């Protein structure tokens, strides 16, 4: 699964620390999500989408290898 | 879910575990016997035993505090890394146990009683130390490398 969290975050001019505070997670979690090393839970994905006022589908995209 | 200790115990564990290990190593190297000679104590057995027990249990408590204390922010990813580290440590411990038993099996004079107890104690501690090292390495070093 690939994601556009980093790109969207930069567009919205939100720092990793601010995003982590808003989501009540650690900065390490944000780094892991942005690098694609960690796939967040449904709840966290929805929270990220809400923070950026967008949809989960626009942030997270399934790849052929996910099937 | 299993309750973890608060984050401050991690700092306590970081201070207590090395102190316990140093005490135990000093006793093994004979520093306690030398100290007792300097103090004029003829029979150092009780002092040696006391330092060994104190050192071992201090180290054990420190290891426990390090392994079972929360991170500053205990979120879902941290829990995931914690679980992965447990699995990693369990696998390594199993390999170490098998190798250790094989080595003991090929020994001409295999260890008895105290030797076996020491081997089993090391096997248990090996699990905890591997877990602590792997967990903290990922959380505090490897994740920040993803950024670069």
Layout of secondary structure:
The complex is a heterodimer of chains A (67) and B (148).
Chain A: E1 2-3, H1 5-11, H2 16-23, H3 27-34, H4 42-51, H5 56-59, E2 60-61
Antiparallel strand pairs in A: 1-2
Helix pairs in contact in A: 2-3
Chain B: H1 8-28, H2 31-39, H3 45-67, H4 76-106, H5 114-147
Helix pairs in contact in B: 1-3, 3-5, 4-5
Protein name (chain A): Repressor protein
GO molecular function, one term (chain A): DNA binding
Domain HTH cro/C1-type (chain A): 5-59
How would you describe this protein?
The complex is a heterodimer of chains A (67) and B (148). Chain A has five helices and two strands, in the order E-H-H-H-H-H-E. With 67 residues, chain A is mainly alpha-helical. Chain A has a single domain, classed as lambda repressor-like DNA-binding domains (434 Repressor (Amino-terminal Domain), Orthogonal Bundle), CATH 1.10.260.40. Chain A has a two-stranded antiparallel sheet with strand order 1-2. In chain A, helix 2 packs across helix 3. Chain A is globular and about 35 Å long. Helices cover 80% and strands 0% of the residues of chain B. The longest helix of chain B is centred in the last third of the chain and has 34 residues. With 148 residues, chain B is mostly helical. The chains are: A mainly alpha (67), B mainly alpha (148). Chains A and B meet through helix 3 of A and helix 4 and helix 5 of B. Chain A: This is Repressor protein. Chain A: GO terms for molecular function: DNA binding. Chain A: InterPro entries: Cro/C1-type_HTH (IPR001387), Lambda_DNA-bd_dom_sf (IPR010982).
Short description:
The complex is a heterodimer of chains A (67) and B (148). Chain A is mainly alpha-helical and 67 residues long. In chain A, 55% of the residues lie in helices and 6% in strands.
